[in-house]
Amino acid sequence: MGSVLLLLLISTICYVFWLQRKQDERALMLARQLCQQQNLQLLDCGRAGHNFQKIQSRLRFITRYQVDFSGDGESRYQAELLLNGMRLAAFNLPAHRI
């Protein structure tokens, strides 16, 4: 019984890790697309954390990513990308110099 629970625990941890990696790849792809649409240079994209947030009057589990970009090649700005599962929930782009 103990070995079955241990195997189940290890399998669950591996599955959650795999899902998180898949979500990270999706966030990077979305960040590239969104920066390309705005004619921005993507510098970096990294996970900033998880939290529960109300979106469209529903409580959702959101993964927050910090996206660093440049509009002029000299300055660095930080945007925020929010994913609900694999779906884009929001992309908060601050004012920046072009």
Which helices and strands occur, and which strands form pairs?
Elements (H helix, E strand, L loop, with lengths): L1 H36 L3 E15 L2 E13 L6 E8 L2 E6 L6
Antiparallel strand pairs: 1-2, 2-3, 3-4
Describe the structure.
The structure is a single chain. A hairpin with a 2-residue loop joins strand 1 and strand 2 (58-70). The chain has one helix at residues 2-37; strands spanning 41-55, 58-70, 77-84, 87-92. A four-stranded antiparallel sheet has the order 1-2-3-4. The mean pLDDT is 91. The N and C termini lie far apart (62 Å). It contains one helix and four strands; from the N terminus they run αββββ. By secondary structure, the protein is of the alpha+beta class.
H-E order: HEEEE
- How many E strands? 4
Form type: elongated
Tally the helices. 1
Uncertain parts: none
Mean pLDDT: 91
Helix content: 25-40%
